[in-house]
Every structure is written in structure tokens, then in C-alpha cells.
Specification:
Layout: E1 2-5, E2 8-15, E3 19-22, E4 25-28, E5 31-35, E6 58-62, H1 80-94, E7 100-104, H2 106-117, E8 124-128, H3 136-147, H4 149-161, H5 164-174, H6 187-195, H7 200-207, E9 224-229, H8 237-246, E10 254-258, H9 265-268, H10 270-282
Length: about 280
């Protein structure tokens, strides 16, 4: 469905009931709001893997403004503050209070910004494979370590040029380095990527723009779980350490490192990852 938010409409999909029978009454499940990566991608990378959490939370998937099926908006509004404001406004429209907000990759940066701008709004945060600032040299070195010089050069090209040619080179040389799994990208991944509604112009523009949101982390107040893959070249473990350093004691943050994972933790260490999410949602 499409939901009117802040002068545009966002594509939203909801999985599972918010109220379930419990004895003589009804019990309200928490809402898990899932923010996808990219930018320029959509929510479909969460499906079907995250459906296993639908028994403990109502899942709300959203395509960010300018992304996926929510592309029809003014490009001048495609920026971090607007994306964060949209999350709060979407919750207001849907009547969601105290959501648990999970942001993966770019979605994690949006989640941090939302939680800093509205510190009393979220119940909890999950920051999955994400970063508070773009450190080009660190990302380039990550791709060099995982995939060699061609990948390092392609990563630097995309992050400094943001052109169609650099985007194509990045896809050719860097995509396989997102996961240490030898079968990545598998036919299943290719199928999942094919299901996405893409906005490559937004991807190229954002990836070639440096940003630093570390200072805003001090405003976050809710319990926060940071999950990071030790072999992630695009949002490396050092980025997770920076997030942890910026979060205040009030956030009660903890870092969980997945030693055998890259950017796609659910693929390589899914059982541990989803058990961790399930415990964090229900605790």
C-alpha cells in the first residue's frame, strides 16, 4: 500500500497481525520497522528471511522516499534529515508507537538519524551492517583486502566519481566481495536482486557524497543493538566501533560481531543472527 507522508507517498507492506489472542484478551505485539539499504534499493532484500520474526513482532517494511516503489517525489527532498523525518511521520500516520527500528546498511544511517532527531520515539534500535560516516580510504582498503586491487580501484571510482561507468565497474568487481561465502552472489541472490525496483541515479549520487553523522549519536536514548560482519568491506567493523564510541551510556548499546560474515550476515550466520534479534525484540 502507499501511505501519504510529508508531501509524498511511501510504499509500505505489513506482515502479521499487531494484535493476537491471549487467553481472554488480545495481546499487542511490538512493531519491527525495517529500513532497507542502498540508497536506491527497496525493502525486498528483507524477504523472505525476516519473516521468521513475524511471530514475535508485526513487521512493517517501507521503501524510503526516492527508493523502490516510493520514487515519485522531489529529488531535492532525498537527503538524510528528510528520510529520518519520514520515519517519524510514517509512524504517526499508521498509529505506531514505540517501534523497534532495524536499519541495514544505508537504512541504519537513516535509523540513527531518526533516533537522534526523535530520541523519545523508538523503543529500540538495531543497527545492522551500517556506518555513521563515509570513510573512502577505509572502504577502499576493505575491498582491497577482500577482493584485490581491481575491487579497490572500482570502489574508489564509485565513491569519488559516481558515474555510470564507475557504477558498472563497482558491480563487476565489488559485488562478490560483499560476502565471504564462496557461492555469493548465488542464483537466489541474483533472483532477489532482480526483484528490486532500483534508482541507480540516487545510488551513484549518495555513494559519491561524503557524510559524517557521528556527533548526532550522542542524542540516541533507546537500547541499541549493533551487528557487524568482521569481513564486511563496505560497512567494516571499524565503522561499528565508531558507532559504539558515539552512542551514550543511556543507549545501553552492545556490539555483536559476526566473525564469518560480510555485509549479508543473515546468509552466513543466520541462525545466530535471528536468535539474537528474537531475544532483543522480546527482552
Amino acid at each position: 500500500m502507499r501511505v501519504a507522508v510529508n508531501g509524498t507517498s511511501l510504499f509500505v507492506d505489513i506482515e502479521g497481525p499487531g494484535l493476537v489472542p491471549d487467553g481472554d484478551g488480545m495481546r499487542e505485539k511490538p512493531t519491527l520497522l525495517l529500513l532497507h539499504g542502498g540508497p536506491g534499493h527497496d525493502h525486498t532484500m528483507f524477504k523472505p528471511a525476516y519473516s521468521r520474526l513475524a511471530d514475535v513482532a508485526q513487521l512493517v517494511y517501507v521503501d524510503h522516499r526516492g527508493n523502490g516503489r516510493s520514487q515519485d517525489s522531489d529529488p531535492a527532498t532525498w537527503h538524510m534529515d528528510q528520510w529520518g523525518d519520514d520515519i517519524r511521520a510514517l509512524c504517526d500516520v499508521l498509529g505506531i508507537t514505540k517501534p523497534i527500528v532495524l536499519g541495514w546498511s544505508f537504512g541504519g544511517t537513516v535509523a540513527m538519524n531518526y533516533a537522534a532527531r526523535y530520541p523519545d520515539h523508538p523503543a529500540k534500535l538495531v543497527l545492522q551492517s551500517t556506518l555513521a560516516r563515509m570513510d573512502i580510504d577505509r572502504v577502499v582498503e576493505g575491498f582491497r583486502t577482500e577482493a584485490g586491487e581491481d575491487a579497490a580501484a572500482a570502489a574508489k571510482g564509485l565513491l569519488t566519481e559516481g558515474t555510470p561507468a564507475s557504477f558498472a565497474a563497482f558491480a563487476e568487481h565489488c559485488l562478490a566481495a560483499y560476502s565471504p561465502e564462496p557461492s555469493f552472489p548465488s542464483p537466489e541472490h541474483a533472483q532477489a536482486f532482480g526483484r528490486m525496483v532500483l534508482n541507480p541515479e540516487l545510488t551513484m549520487s549518495f555513494m559519491s557524497t561524503e557524510f559524517d553523522r557521528r556527533d548526532s549519536l550522542a542524542a540516541v536514548r533507546c537500547p541499541t543493538l549493533v551487528a557487524a560482519g568482521a569481513r564486511d568491506p563496505i560497512t567494516p567493523l571499524a565503522a561499528a566501533d565508531e558507532i559504539m564510541a558515539g552512542l551514550p551510556p543511556a543507549a545501553g548499546a552492545r556490539l555483536e560481531v559476526f566473525e564469518h560474515s560480510g555485509h549479508f550476515i543473515p546468509d552466513s550466520e543466520g541462525d545466530r543472527f535471528f536468535a539474537l534479534l528474537r531475544a532483543f525484540i522480546t527482552e
